[in-house]
TrEMBL record:
Species this protein is from: Adhaeribacter swui
The name this protein goes by in its record: OmpA family protein
Keyword rRNA-binding: no
UniProt entry tagged with the keyword Membrane: yes
Stretches forming TPR repeats: 26-59
Keywords carried by this UniProt record: Cell outer membrane, Membrane, TPR repeat
GO cellular component assignments: cell outer membrane
Cross-referenced SUPFAM superfamilies: Carboxypeptidase regulatory domain-like (SSF49464), DPP6 N-terminal domain-like (SSF82171), OmpA-like (SSF103088), TPR-like (SSF48452)
Localization annotation: Cell outer membrane
Amino acid sequence: MKYTYTNVFILLLVVALGSLPARLQAQSALRKADQYFNSYKYALAIEEYKKAIESKPPTLAVMQRLADANRLSNRSVAAESWYAEVVKNPEADPINIMYYAQMLHTNGKYDEAKVQYLQYAEKQPAEAAQARKLADACDTAAQWLKRSPLFEVKAATELNTLYSDFSPIPYKNGIIFTSDRSVAGAGKTKEKIFGWTGRPYLKLYSSEKNGLTWSKPTLLTSNINATYHNGPAALDSVKSTIYFTRTNLVKLKNTKANPDPTSWVENPFASGFINRLEIYFAEKQGEKWADAKPFAYNKIEEYSVGHPVLSPDGNLLYFVSDMPGGFGLTDIYYCERMGNGSWSKPVNAGNTINTSGREMFPAFDQNGTLYFSSDGHAGFGGLDLFSAKGERSTWSAVTNLMAPINSSRNDYGMLVEGAGQTGLFSSDRFSEEATADIYSFSMIQQPAVLAVTTLERLAGQIGKKSLMPLSNVRLRLTQPNSRDSIIVTSDKKGHYYFNVFKGNNYALLGSKANFLTQPADVQISLNAPDTVNVTLLFDRIQTNTPISLANIYFDLNKWEIRPDAALELDKLAATLLANPKVKIEMGSHCDSREGDNYNQLLSELRAEATVNYLVSQGVARERLTARGYGESQPVNRCVDGVSCSEEEHQQNRRTTFKIQKELASK
């Protein structure tokens, strides 16, 4: 019996000692993983954490680190899986529910993401409003996916690798783009690896397009591509100056500082350091780039600046920064070129563009439309691509570019070609390792109906009674830069229906004998309804008969042209340019509530203001005459001493035009 017990004891001892190396290896891997994580080397940390849990189940702390490391390195599929395990633990921080929802959202699982957002709202009442907003965004994205696609998207396989390739910009007969691909022929020097991603540092490459194919990408010179990250970039209109993003290693004053939400940030050597983004620029000298110079407003001790782009006229430099005073994690800013060639102080582009989230990767097309990426505006998940018109800090409403350009993952780095129907962009939509690829897009022609109504504006009449259908109007529809036209006539009710395509601009011209020819520029957006309505108002050519113009209003006791009045005067200017032989008199009328002399002077100033505005729109001054009528020609009973309503007085405060007698027969 003693022999038997001894053998059992020896066997147990052998098993225990045999498992010791495995436990020691797991502890070593865990220590190394924590060091990597604390140094922002998330790709390396993930591998070590995996080793640490090979021999035993992971603790909550390790699962938390694996989830966070995958999320921070944009590995959303793996992050979703680990957060699903973390939230099962009752001791887990509630913020993990939000992270789990975000990963589900990024992976396109909108119904599941909505459940988690709402659960987070219940657990964290202080953040419930934002959580419910994100839950609503899931419903919106699901509805958007039901829309018919406006573009066809294809991977640009000749430009892409297993690494990240993104943010193309036009250059010569091709593009410059950013990539962390392994540099061919690196020689004996070992290639430096970015611990955050586990891939080489970003560099700028160029490639030329030959027909439908791309040449092998070529690395830009070393005075552009420095040791660490370089890119994305932008060029001026003549391709003589390149502006680009570059990283710089900075020692942190506050060791708890955020590792820079503009991404591409790490501590490559030891804790207490961080990489900040900066903007550099270099000029072309012959066929070579000169040494790069720093942007005046780099301030790496406090914040990052990056992702530069110039406005089409080159007078504004837009960029992204996390500088203090912004609306969110990263905002878009701009500087204005001064007379001496320097740049003004940065100004925030405003809260129409910028949100509490991240706005990044700004770009322009040749028409000045801004394209940028954001995770703060309503979207499909991750960074979505948006467009907006305007400049500086004044912008129109932001428009989501929709699927298939946008996906639930990160979509960014837009290059729009020509008329906006083709181009390139980048996305990590099909990668579990957060590597981006470059994609091409081309517009799918979506049909629409252009419903044209032709009406006669009756001279001497005001309001709805002044309009009646005009039949047999000759209508010519043309696309810009096209020699082909469609010529038809309106029916007896003044209607005609053209078959057109969304995303196109059309020139419409209506003409009929004894009437002024009427032009109209028709812009049918990609998001236009299936039927677009356009009305042409025709004025009969007759002498000394005033025709009232709708919506020409002036502020009290003022004669400056208001924006709403300018819209109507723009239409009249277009009519005059389409009828070059016509001369007109512009008349201004007042109501009777001021003195005769005052009203006479005010009406003369207003008539002259309308003439000056028409001249500014290209109408020759010798074709125009200004005349003020004061209160001398009321269209109703409202004269001095008669009590009238405001609507009746408004009828008398009008702007008219009439064709001058001597040219009526020409």
